[in-house]
Amino acid sequence: xxxxxxxxxxxxxxxxxxxxxxxxxxxxxxxxxxxxxxxxxxxxxxxxxxxxxxxxxxxxxxxxxxxxxxxxxxxxxxxxxxxxxxxxxxxxxxxxxxxxxxxxxxxxxxxxxxxxxxxxxxxxxxxxxxxxxxxxxxxxxxxxxxxxxx
Length: 150
Hints:
By secondary structure, the chain is of the alpha+beta class. It has a single domain, classed as Nuclear Transport Factor 2, Chain: A, CATH 3.10.450. Helix content is 27%, strand content 45%. The protein contains three helices and six strands. The protein has a six-stranded mixed sheet with strand order 2-1-6-5-4-3, covered by helices on one side. Strand 3 and strand 4 form a beta hairpin. The protein is elongated and about 50 Å long. The termini are far apart.
């Protein structure tokens, strides 16, 4: 692999992480296949899961019940080995209460460790591990029963 190709691959993966944040903050669930492979496996802290549909279900379970969100991804490190790569990125996710723009928020901070594979359609995440280190605010913002009250 040339140095130029490695830089282009790293850029594509970094762009994919940014695309992911914007897709979920925009609640564009049908577009998650732009970043994730259909056969991915993942763990967001609630046990092992597999498949793009399971990811959509997990995202919707928490994010459809809250208001606006903003996922900030940074301190990205990418290691490329041919058609495989691993990225490590810090994430801070802010969640606002539904229908209450000046109200309570819930913040989660942690790290995404992603395994990527080069596919015909481009780089896709085939494995995600989310490790959460800090939480602040009102976690009830992410609970469906709270959304039903408001």
